[in-house]
């Protein structure tokens, strides 16, 4: 991206982080929890910690840039939409980390492991409180829209967008788990559908729709192309995550590599590994796959096999290919929407991919 675009992204991030912190500062007073409850403020503090602990806020960026497709004037409702988007993301992180039994997220403990530390002798309570923390974040993501003060018709449309996004994400989580029960590696059609439902629809499509709605645009009139753009970005994003899980830098990511290998997940990386290895190399990969005690040395050996067999190079090339398709879709928006914002959506896919290198 150009320096001008990167500066705009950074400004969105800084402004939203302040907004998010202010939201949590006042949230406790609005929940009307019983005065004796110690667990409720503790839950809010854990949600706050996770929510404010890093992240590039690209969903917020997409939201603002989608509004700029229509108008460069200040738009009422963007703050509420941004809070809703990131609260839904917090919900997803809490539940993802529980499903994956992840200990760390964004360089700190996950909500689940924080509760496990608080209640070492009560594993069911730790599990239940984690589920409820994620559920609370989901409910808050809808409540913030209902309390936004926008016209009723706009609020209704925004709640519908977020409800559909959440529903699609839950379906995506279900089929993501189902995928790993299949015999053999899944084909790309399955992997793409999982990426679309699990991440693209709430991380890309919903911010696009919400941004257009708040600015007076008509997302339904452009549903097909918005969905195609979101799907392509979602594929790039999921492929990037899967790539980094084996070929990434642990220090930069704030979490260990090899998680997908240890859990036996049929990710893009694993599918591509299995398509090229044979003999002794395949034995190494298959012995590691689904082995929770797989050592860092074994993960490093699988990584070396993947690099030697061209899996890392292939995945980078595929990500660039999908990014180019997304760029072309965005380029088709130029006749109807503002040039500066269209340019952002053209630059975004390749920039996202290059960060994976």
From TrEMBL:
UniProt keyword ATP-binding, yes or no: no
Pfam assignment, any one: polyprenyl_synt
Family: Belongs to the FPP/GGPP synthase family.
Name of the protein described by the UniProt record: Polyprenyl synthetase family protein
Entry superkingdom: Bacteria
Cofactors named for this entry: Mg(2+)
SUPFAM superfamilies reported in the protein's UniProt record: Terpenoid synthases (SSF48576)
Gene3D superfamilies: Farnesyl Diphosphate Synthase (1.10.600.10)
Organism this protein belongs to: Streptomyces marokkonensis
CDD domains in the cross-refs: Trans_IPPS_HT
Keywords noted in UniProt: Isoprene biosynthesis, Magnesium, Metal-binding, Transferase
């Amino acid at each position: 991206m150009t320096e001008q675009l990167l500066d705009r992204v950074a400004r969105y991030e800084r402004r939203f982080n302040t907004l998010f912190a202010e939201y949590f500062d006042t949230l406790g007073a609005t929940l009307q929890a019983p005065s004796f409850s110690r667990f409720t403020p503790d839950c809010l503090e854990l949600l706050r910690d996770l929510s404010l602990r890093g992240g590039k806020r690209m969903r917020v960026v997409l939201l603002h840039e989608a509004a700029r497709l229509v108008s460069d004037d200040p738009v009422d409702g963007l703050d509420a939409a941004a809070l809703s988007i990131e609260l839904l993301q917090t919900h997803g992180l809490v539940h993802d980390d529980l499903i994956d039994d992840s200990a760390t997220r964004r360089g700190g403990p996950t909500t689940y492991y924080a509760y496990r530390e608080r209640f070492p002798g009560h594993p069911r309570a730790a599990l239940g409180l984690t589920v409820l923390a994620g559920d609370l974040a989901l409910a808050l993501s809808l409540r913030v829209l209902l309390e936004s003060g926008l016209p009723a018709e706009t609020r209704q449309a925004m709640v519908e967008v977020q409800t559909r996004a959440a529903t699609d994400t839950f379906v995506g989580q279900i089929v993501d788990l189902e995928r790993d029960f299949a015999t053999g590696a899944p084909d790309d059609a399955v992997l793409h559908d999982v990426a679309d439902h699990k991440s693209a629809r709430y991380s890309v499509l919903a911010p696009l729709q919400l941004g257009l709605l708040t600015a007076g645009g008509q997302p339904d009139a452009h549903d097909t192309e918005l969905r195609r753009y979101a799907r392509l970005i979602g594929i790039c994003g999921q492929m990037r995550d899967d790539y980094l899980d084996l070929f990434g830098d642990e220090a930069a990511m704030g979490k260990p590599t090899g998680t997908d290998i240890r859990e036996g997940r049929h990710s893009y990386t694993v599918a591509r590994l299995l398509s090229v290895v044979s003999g002794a190399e395949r034995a190494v990969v298959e012995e590691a796959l689904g082995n929770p005690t797989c050592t860092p040395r074994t993960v490093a050996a699988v990584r070396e096999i993947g690099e030697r067999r061209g899996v890392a190079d292939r995945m980078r090339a595929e990500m660039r290919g999908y990014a180019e398709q997304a760029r072309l879709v965005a380029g088709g928006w130029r006749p109807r929407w503002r040039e500066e914002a269209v340019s952002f959506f053209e630059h975004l896919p390749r920039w996202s991919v290059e960060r994976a290198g």
